[in-house]
Design a protein that fits this description.
Elements: H1 8-24, H2 29-35, H3 40-56, H4 65-75, H5 80-97, H6 101-125
Helix pairs in contact: 1-2, 1-3, 1-5, 3-6, 4-6, 5-6
């Protein structure tokens, strides 16, 4: 039986394993490495804080993930499939490493976050009359 996510070490394992899968995936890895040019030394601790805040309710994360994704979308259109690939890796990583209440919460939060961010990016791209913003 696998253990549940209970501390920052668990979150670091989850995040590190997940992002290695993302970076290795030709369908989305380029969005992080080439388009956003993520500085992984800085980004990973931010993601640890983000998930520690969301799963363990320790108030560490301060940031705006929606704005960050909108900036990436300005360079390379983010599509629903990109978020689907991201969730595919998140779910498989959670399931591979953990099980329990927090593991389930990690998947629920990721699903909600991916949907919200995609919809905000999409809404920014299009006006209310369906015309593409320039």
């Amino acid at each position: 039986m696998k253990k549940d996510i209970t501390n920052r070490d668990d979150i670091q394992l989850l995040v590190n394993t997940f992002y290695q899968k993302v970076r290795d995936d030709q369908r989305i890895g380029y969005l992080f490495d080439d388009v956003a040019q993520v500085d992984w030394q800085k980004h990973l601790p931010i993601m640890y804080d983000f998930w520690e805040t969301n799963l363990l309710f320790v108030q560490k994360y301060k940031g705006n993930p929606i704005q960050t994704h909108m900036e990436v979308d300005d360079t390379e259109n983010l599509e629903q499939k990109h978020f689907g690939y991201w969730m595919e890796h998140w779910f498989s990583t959670v399931d591979e490493l953990f099980e329990g209440e927090k593991a389930t919460l990690a998947k629920e939060r990721a699903r909600k976050m991916a949907h919200t961010i995609f919809m905000r990016v999409y809404m920014k791209r299009y006006t209310t009359d369906g015309q593409k913003n320039s």
